[in-house]
Amino acid sequence: REIMCSQIVTVSSRSKYQELTISTSKTDYVLIDNFIGPVIWVRAILPFTCTQGMLKVASSRRFLVSKKRYFVLRGNRLTGYKKESLIHQVGAKSSTISLADAKIDISDPRNLSISITTPEFSQAGKKLILTATSTREFNKWTSALMALQVGSSTPAA
Fold it and tell me: How much of the chain is helix, strand and coil, in % rounded to 5?
């Protein structure tokens, strides 16, 4: 079966079993690779994926008030929309933050929460708190965000 990179939502690996899991919005594909290794595949595919999905969002200042938003992670830019249907609409209202120098923490794995602090947020004394709607969504977002953070912390050649 052929899968286009634009269809891939996330990619992950389980090295112990030599498994590579590729997820699209409709299904998961599990590949067994004893030759190259799943970690190499993840590093090769991840830059071409576009992680997206519904998350609850709150700031550290208004923690009790959270809103559901549809988020899209492209490269190191995280964009939030009120609804999924707006992502392809020209001129749709959205909020985008750069994660280039962001600190990403798994703040509460039991509550499926991730906190993001950018230099701008830090100066204002706040952070962004994202909460996934399911364990699968949480795993998808933590994989993508942590891979982004690991990728940005490597020294330039």
Answer: 30, 40, 30
- For 35-87, the pLDDT digits (tens) are 777 777 777 776 667 788 899 998 666 555 678 999 988 888 999 999 888 87
In whole angstroms, give the CA distance from residue 49 to residue 47.
Answer: 6
Enumerate residues 6+ apart whose C-beta is below 8 A from 71. 52, 53, 54, 55, 57, 78, 79, 80, 81, 130
Kind plus residue range of the DSSP H or E element containing 73? strand 67-74
Contact 9, 51 (CB under 8 A): yes
The count of domains in the chain is 2
Residue 26 falls inside a structural domain: yes
Is residue 157 one of the residues assigned to a domain?
no
> In terms of domains, do 115 and 146 share one?
yes
Is the separation of the CB atoms in 81 and 92 below 8 Å? yes
Asked whether the whole model's pTM tops 0.70, one would answer no
Same domain, 39 and 75: no
